[in-house]
């Protein structure tokens, strides 16, 4: 495949998760610039589709994993009699690999050998170029470049409307909108990746002292609701609790209004990046150079590298890229003082 190849019908396969589909949007929009006449179809997960619905120029086909075998049959039925010029198979999970089998395409582009796993190689016939120590977003960039998109700085035009922004603004209230908003999005998908509630509370109090209004965001899961309640219980600062009160597009608009976001390894950190809001990322289990907030990796506070060396005796460069470290209490190694110091640095550098 060369840059002179013309594509009229392109399929994207990336089912999950929220952060990853945010990374993929920048690649898709770069592809649209390189191939403005091409039709783009994106096979995506149900929850992720709620965030990206109405993305300009993209047709979404929802793959609902809860439907089991029926989800694969629906894919086959949807694409019956159709053949894409190219499938960009951007996910190595077995579920996605099996979905790729249901998508007819002349060419199926997948990851390079080093990133292929869960039988990924059996479902592709072309590969993106190998990359050394790449961020997840750069992997997706490799797919865009494989079909002729020139190198690009990631940009996003996210599908939010004035109505979504008005709904978010109504939740925030006029008083907060008049000042600087500090959003804490405290919950990752696994409890062990969350910082301690009393330490989130300490940052809430510090931010309030610096003149910020503090908002906590999150989804309606018991873990997220409980964590928000614990943070508020430890804080003497006024905190607006929006956990479970926003749809994904409204959450994106809340993050857009924020001056600064604090989050662990979780989707909203990457959502904030797409709307240009600086993020302080808290990382212990995964390498932030691979999964951190892409445009704000210099603002990460991490204990990943020291734990990796303690557990393996090696550095990230000496191990398979993306090697995780294990431990239920690693996030406790991130001190309040370190995060406050980063808070001050970001406020100064971004002139917040």
TrEMBL record:
SUPFAM superfamilies: UDP-Glycosyltransferase/glycogen phosphorylase. GO terms for molecular function: transferase activity. Keywords: Glycosyltransferase, Transferase. Gene3D superfamilies: Glycogen Phosphorylase B. PANTHER family: LIPOPOLYSACCHARIDE CORE HEPTOSYLTRANSFERASE OPSX (PTHR30160:SF21), TETRAACYLDISACCHARIDE 4'-KINASE-RELATED (PTHR30160). This is Glycosyl transferase. It comes from Pseudoalteromonas gelatinilytica. The gene is waaC.
């Amino acid at each position: 495949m060369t840059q002179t190849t013309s594509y009229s019908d392109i399929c994207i396969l990336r089912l999950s998760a929220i952060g990853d589909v945010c990374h993929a949007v920048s690649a898709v929009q770069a592809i649209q610039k390189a191939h403005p006449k091409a039709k783009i179809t994106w096979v995506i997960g149900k929850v992720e589709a709620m965030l990206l619905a109405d993305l300009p120029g993209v047709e979404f086909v929802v793959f609902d994993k809860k439907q089991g075998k029926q989800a694969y049959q629906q894919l086959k039925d949807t694409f019956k009699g159709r053949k894409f010029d190219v499938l960009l198979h951007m996910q190595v999970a077995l579920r996605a690999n099996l979905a790729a089998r249901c998508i007819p395409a002349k060419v199926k582009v997948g990851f390079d050998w080093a990133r292929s796993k869960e039988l990924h190689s059996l479902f592709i016939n072309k590969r993106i170029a190998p990359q050394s120590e790449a961020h997840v977003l750069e992997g997706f960039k490799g797919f865009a470049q494989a079909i002729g998109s020139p190198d690009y700085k990631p940009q996003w035009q996210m599908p939010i409307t004035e109505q979504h922004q008005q709904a978010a603004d109504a939740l925030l209230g006029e008083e907060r909108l008049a000042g600087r908003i500090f959003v804490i999005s405290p919950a990752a998908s696994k409890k062990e990746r969350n910082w301690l509630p009393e330490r989130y509370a300490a940052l809430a109090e510090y931010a309030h002292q610096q003149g910020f209004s503090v908002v906590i965001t999150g989804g309606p899961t018991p873990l997220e609701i409980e964590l928000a309640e614990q943070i508020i219980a430890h804080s003497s600062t006024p905190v607006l609790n929006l956990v479970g009160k926003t749809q994904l597009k409204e959450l994106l608009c809340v993050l857009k209004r924020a001056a600064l976001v604090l989050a662990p390894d979780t989707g909203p950190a990457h959502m904030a990046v797409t709307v240009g809001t600086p993020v302080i990322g808290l990382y212990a289990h995964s390498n932030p150079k691979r999964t951190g907030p892409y445009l704000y990796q210099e603002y990460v506070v991490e204990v990943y590298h020291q734990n990796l060396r303690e557990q393996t005796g090696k550095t990230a460069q000496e191990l398979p890229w993306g090697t995780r470290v294990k431990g239920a209490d690693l996030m406790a190694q991130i001190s309040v003082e370190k995060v406050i110091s980063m808070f001050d640095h970001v406020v100064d550098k971004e002139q917040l």
